[in-house]
Design brief:
Order of helices and strands: HEHHHHEHHEHEHEHEHEHHEHHHH
Structural class: alpha/beta
Helix content: 40-55%
CATH topology: TIM Barrel
Strand content: 5-15%
Organism: Aquimarina celericrescens
Distance between the termini: 7 Å
Binding site for Zn(2+): 19, 21, 199, 280
Shape: globular
Largest sheet: 8 strands, parallel
Domain Adenosine deaminase: 14-334
Mean pLDDT: 98
GO molecular function, one term: hydrolase activity
Function: Catalyzes the hydrolytic deamination of adenine to hypoxanthine. Plays an important role in the purine salvage pathway and in nitrogen catabolism.
Radius of gyration: 19 Å
Low-confidence stretches: none
Oligomer: single chain
Number of domains: 1
Bound molecules: adenine, zinc ion
Length: 339
């Protein structure tokens, strides 16, 4: 059997994406198309101008542009098209399972109904399952810069769609909006049967990861980079095998790391943390799943064995059933043996 290149190896390996904001997949081309049919004005004159504005010094600078982009999404079909474009893209990249976030408040605060948003997204996910065989889970994320009352209202709106939503998350501006602000919302969400995750330790301190664990009872941490500041926290995450959904290109673009050579993913693997590779907001950060794997493999000279470990982690950290996980992990191991 001839050895394939790392690039080809990454392209072909079956993988899951566990940290993806559907609003963050909104490519400028589709944004202009949807804006036109909805008679919405985009403040940048062209697709090129808009892409040029994608240069960020921190999370907040990105969020301002990301929320502005989402303003052109009005109809169920818009949410369908957005989700369908993402699925088409990742299908080409051998992503076989996705657990994606949507931010209802970004839309309901503009007068778009919860129903419109979730129906469009869910229909595309169902079609992706039928046409591409991509399995999925949907995660509803609360915006942490908004108040507890708004999160409670959103949770109420979600209850009729319980069967479509596997879990709840927490995203947006981290610093100054600790997980503790949403302790009661997450308690209610868990009572209603939702699994919980939270962005923590992206820009915020290790303390926020402790809060996500202890107060929100999360099953997974999104990002979690800053756990390395606290040895006892690392020990806890290793002991409980709490997965971290890392996002290398996002970290680079939002200046969480200066250079991908400084990215903590290998240190984390070596310390026994269960880490995964994800794209976060690929339309804004210059790459989908394979580009994330590739950039980290280049920067840190990852071996095929390490890449295989990351792909296996993407399934073990997922919300698939134990049997589904086992089957996917076997597929990845077979791929490694053959390539
Ligand atoms: N990387 C990120 N951090 C926090 N909130 C987000 N919303 C979309 N992407 C995000
Ligand atoms: Zn994110």
């Amino acid at each position: 059997m001839s050895e394939i290149s790392i690039k080809k190896f990454i392209e072909g390996i079956p993988k899951a994406e566990l940290h993806l904001h559907i609003e963050g997949t909104f490519e400028p081309e589709l944004m202009f198309e949807i804006a036109k049919r909805n008679n919405k004005i985009i403040s940048h004159a062209s697709i090129d101008e808009l892409r040029k504005a994608y240069s960020f010094n921190n999370l907040q600078e990105f969020l301002d542009i990301y929320y502005a982009g989402a303003n052109v999404l009005i109809n169920e079909q818009d949410f369908y098209d957005l989700t369908w474009a993402y699925l088409t893209k990742v299908h080409e990249q051998n992503v076989v399972h996705v657990e994606i976030f949507f931010d209802p408040q970004t839309h309901t605060d503009r007068g778009i109904s919860f129903d419109t948003v979730i129906r469009g997204i869910h229909k595309a996910l169902e079609d992706g399952k039928k046409q591409f065989g991509i399995s999925f889970k949907l995660i509803m994320s609360f915006l942490r810069h908004l108040d507890e009352a708004s999160a409670f209202t959103t949770l109420e709106q979600a209850l009729p769609y319980k069967n479509w939503i596997s879990g709840v998350g927490l995203d947006s501006s981290e610093i100054g909006n600790p997980p503790s602000k949403f302790e009661r919302v997450f308690e209610k969400a868990r009572e209603e049967g939702f699994l919980t995750v939270a962005h923590a330790g992206e820009e915020g301190p290790a303390e926020y990861i402790w809060e996500a664990l202890d107060l929100l009872k999360i099953t997974r941490i999104d990002h979690g980079n800053r756990c390395l500041d606290d040895n006892s926290l690392v020990q806890k995450l290793v002991e409980l095998q709490i997965p971290l959904t890392l996002c290398p290109l996002s970290n680079l673009e939002l200046k969480v790391v200066k250079d991908l050579k400084d990215h903590p993913i290998v240190t984390m693997m070596n310390r026994g943390l269960l880490v995964t590779v994800n794209s976060d907001d690929p339309a804004y950060f210059g790459g989908y799943m394979n580009e994330n794997y590739q950039s980290i493999a280049d920067a840190l000279q990852l071996s095929k064995k390490q890449i295989t470990e990351l792909a296996k982690n993407s399934f073990s950290a997922s919300w698939l059933t134990d049997k589904e996980k086992e089957n996917r992990i076997t597929e990845v191991e077979e791929y490694f043996k053959n390539n």
